[in-house]
Amino acid sequence: MKKALTIAGSDSSGGAGIQADLKTFSAHGIFGMSVITAVTAQNTQGVFAVQDISREVIAAQIKAIFEDIEVDGLKVGMVSQISTIEIIAELLKVYAPKNIVIDPVMVSKSGYHLLNPQAELTLIRELLPLATVVTPNIPEAEVMTKMTIQNLTQMESAAKYIYQMGAKNVLLKGGHLENDSTDILYDGRNFKYYTSQRVKTKNTHGTGCTLSSAITSNLALGYPLSEAVSLAKDYIIEAIEHSLDIGKGVGPTHHFYSLYQKAGFNN
Ligand SMILES: Nc1ncnc2c1ncn2[C@@H]1O[C@H](COP(=O)(O)OP(=O)(O)O)[C@@H](O)[C@H]1O
Ligand SMILES: Cc1ncc(COP(=O)(O)OP(=O)(O)O)c(N)n1
């Protein structure tokens, strides 16, 4: 069985973060493991408190996994602080896993700064060069590039800029634009476009986490990146189409059984 690791924050409401990642790994027939960087108190309406995990305990979690278990794919989500980013980068260089997906989580849909703004440059400098693929959404790409992004042409320019920051591939997600939702993948030479109709729902909590962990799963299963993204896009669309109207705010995506079957369990 393939094994994947998520290094991210816990979402108490189960829609995003570590919880979304582990559900996605399971739905792909992957054995999921976690390194928790922060515990958040959040629900469909917002984030109410955050406790960062210490650098020492983050390091101990990473070492406990890599000293014992092979990792076929890894994603990094919420990393919150400079010291957290530094220790993760240091240890990823030591253990050098293949297939690293960096989701540069900055601000939740409810507007909470999950990444300390002072740590933005550290994330770019330390984690981007380690990424097989980095998956910013539009607001994150705007922070990274200081560009305004309102259309596909501007998305292409931003993807090129982020590529030059050191990521081997850039998947710029278009979920925050209007109309169709188009994500673009740039490998330093060519663009690939992944377009789907926008699902009309307010329940999109955890879409970014789900997409990046689905890409991680597909890379762990051995798919080349462009196919891993394409399959992940199919997965996120279904997960949004079946999203759950639970809670009083933005409900979560749903990792239901047929996705699990479709992903194929015989690996
Ligand atoms: N309403 C929607 N309908 C279809 N796809 C969507 C919708 N909202 C987001 N997506 C897709 O979900 C994924 C995550 O998107 P995005 O919302 O941009 O990221 P984040 O959750 O990090 O803000 C992308 O593939 C995006 O195209
Ligand atoms: C613990 C934690 N990590 C990441 C996020 C952001 O998740 P995302 O998939 O970008 O979705 P929204 O929260 O923005 O809807 C989070 N909220 N919590």
From TrEMBL:
Q: Does the keyword Iron-sulfur apply?
A: no
The record's annotation in InterPro entries points to:
HMP/HMP-P_kinase_dom, PM/HMP-P_kinase-1, Ribokinase-like
- Pyridoxamine kinase/Phosphomethylpyrimidine kinase domain mapped to chain residues: 11-254
Biochemical pathway: Cofactor biosynthesis; thiamine diphosphate biosynthesis; 4-amino-2-methyl-5-diphosphomethylpyrimidine from 5-amino-1-(5-phospho-D-ribosyl)imidazole: step 3/3; Cofactor biosynthesis; thiamine diphosphate biosynthesis; 4-amino-2-methyl-5-diphosphomethylpyrimidine from 5-amino-1-(5-phospho-D-ribosyl)imidazole: step 2/3
Give any Gene Ontology cellular component.
cytosol
Name one process (GO BP) from the record: thiamine biosynthetic process
One Pfam match, by short name? Phos_pyr_kin
What is catalyzed by this enzyme? 4-amino-5-hydroxymethyl-2-methylpyrimidine + ATP = 4-amino-2-methyl-5-(phosphooxymethyl)pyrimidine + ADP + H(+); 4-amino-2-methyl-5-(phosphooxymethyl)pyrimidine + ATP = 4-amino-2-methyl-5-(diphosphooxymethyl)pyrimidine + ADP
- List GO molecular-function terms, semicolon-separated: ATP binding; hydroxymethylpyrimidine kinase activity; phosphomethylpyrimidine kinase activity
This entry's Enzyme Commission designation comes to 2.7.1.49, 2.7.4.7
Gene3D superfamilies membership: 3.40.1190.20
Any keyword Amino-acid biosynthesis? no
Q: Which UniProt keywords apply?
A: ATP-binding, Kinase, Nucleotide-binding, Thiamine biosynthesis, Transferase
Similarity annotation: Belongs to the ThiD family.
What is the name of the protein in this document?
Hydroxymethylpyrimidine/phosphomethylpyrimidine kinase
